[in-house]
Amino acid sequence: MTVESTAQRKTTRGGSKRTTAKKASSAKAKTPDNAADQVEQDQLVQLLTPEGKRVEHPDYAIDLTPEELRGLYRDMVLTRKFDAEATTLQRQGELGLWASLLGQEAAQIGSGRALRDDDYVFPTYREHGVAWCRGVDPTNLLGMFRGVNNGGWDPNSNNFHLYTIVIGSQALHATGYAMGVQKDGADSAVIAYFGDGASSQGDVAEAFTFSAVYNSPVVFFCQNNQWAISEPTEKQTRVPLYQRARGYGFPGVRVDGNDVLACLAVTKAALERARTGQGPMLIEAFTYRMGAHTTSDDPTKYRADEETRAWEAKDPILRLRTYLVAEGVVDDAYLAAVEAESEALGKRVRETVRAMPDPDSMAIFENIYADGHALVDEERAQFAAYQASFADADAVAEEN
Ligand SMILES: Cc1ncc(C[n+]2csc(CCOP(=O)(O)OP(=O)(O)O)c2C)c(N)n1
Ligand SMILES: [Mg+2]
What percent of the chain clears pLDDT 70, i.e. is strictly above it? Predict the structure, then answer.
């Protein structure tokens, strides 16, 4: 079954008809707050078609300078390059694991570039493009995946929390943080990233409830990449995910997650709502995980090649490049310069990762409790003895 037909079935189950982008742009203007209209508003917000044609949407206008447009292209190309390098490094044994963002560049760069410096981000483990937008050096993302540190950056330096592996839990962290922002009287916003699979977690449901009731300044950015490891979205929900918001009392919108302009426009609008005291909003970025779940996964075991091929035609970088070339916003010299920059980034990533020092193997026992704990002391002693047993074995082997 293709993704198109899966989406079709889901929307039919939800009791509404799928409409085309063309129809959407000519539809009567509706505010995203009009929850009653949402069941019928089952189309993607799209500003750039897969063919690279610019279209308008009644609720989400955007007007970017040529420089800003070039910046979005550069961000996506460099993020894809970094991600490809990381996948290759894992294959060469330099990383323990890697979770690729291939295909999700527009969702991440569009939403990431909508943020203000004082906004705060709570990511999953796949938000490499958002990290890039926050100014976290890409090589810092790799330490944890190499197993040489427990995170890799100071969350407060870039208002970008550490990667979170416990599915959905960061939605609660973001909501709590947003409630704190409210109490401080600040006008910054908070954004929580999570996936389609995470939408089934209790933590996400609780985050929706609390943020709605407290009217907290948080944006829930769900990248529906169609898969939660080997589980398709249709096993997570009977209605399009963005419609879940309605039951909690805040608006939800589904955006073309492979359209960087639409992701930017919708996220900006949601952040503005949050900042101005209008409470949370759910964005479902409809996209596709082009690669494996992680380097430990083999998607050929559970999904058809034709599905992945169909999404190749919607590639986020290709469609922006087509548009920028047609508009004369980029020329060959610019494209070549970005290519050269991406090669240099790849080289820097490879060299930096290979040079990362191994940590002291006992360091894992530090920073657990401020004042120490008997159980940790016991585990530390056990581990030290275990490690010493190898040294003893080596000594015996040498004697023989
Ligand atoms: C609480 C919890 N349950 C299960 C897992 C194992 N797990 C890791 S990734 C994943 C799937 C997540 O899918 P989704 O939310 O769609 O995000 P994606 O990986 O597609 O970006 C699961 C079940 C986990 N890390 N945490
Ligand atoms: Mg997913």
Answer: 90
